[in-house]
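Duplicate of earlier report; CDP-diacylglycerol--serine O-phosphatidyltransferase input re-posted below.
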Amino acid sequence: MKYLKLIPNTMTLGNLYCGFLSIGYAANGQYKNAAILILIGMMLDSMDGWLARKLDADSDLGKELDSLADIVTFGVAPSFLVYYTHFFQYDILGFAIAGLFPLFGAYRLARFNISASSNQVNYFTGVPITAAGGIVALLTLFGAFIPNILISVIFTALCFLMVSNIKVPSLKEVPLPKYGTIITVFIASAIFMVFVGKYGQFPYLIYIATPVYIGYLSYYFIKKKGKDEN
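Output:
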């Protein structure tokens, strides 16, 4: 039974590894693959906390590990991705601008970690780094249809929104896993694009992660419905 409590941390480490792989794919010019891996990291990030609560495996180690994984997958990886796909045209200045994203993200995570959890029930202060990193991944995934100037504006805005005092509604009280709808829709869209042949081949991991995550969503709703009926 004690080994079951390792599952949430395994999900977190999987999230971290997706970030590492995303950086590698971006460095090798496989930008769509890199973006998809960040989205898969979001899926794993949404599952680790839920599993920790279900398995009574919440721990300080898990929380610290989650933050370390987030800064890599949703901070460093998106900054590399947006540099290689967009800011590279500005040479060293572009590299410096892209590097701001993990700096703002790290500050956002640190501020979140020292905040009282009771203040985070209904809202987040500033845009969560997970959501910001996912948006950057989507910008690059659909970059062919988005003007460069708009990508620059959104990227800059996300940096400041992460450290802002804007109250962002939390999804904890919504009967849906964190980021569940957004990720399911875009992963399904990505798979559709693979079949129509517009964007080439995505990592094989997506064909494993997507059905697993859909199964997770189905289980969540079934359990939720059962509780509501009781």
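The chain has one domain: 2-229.

Merging into the original ticket.
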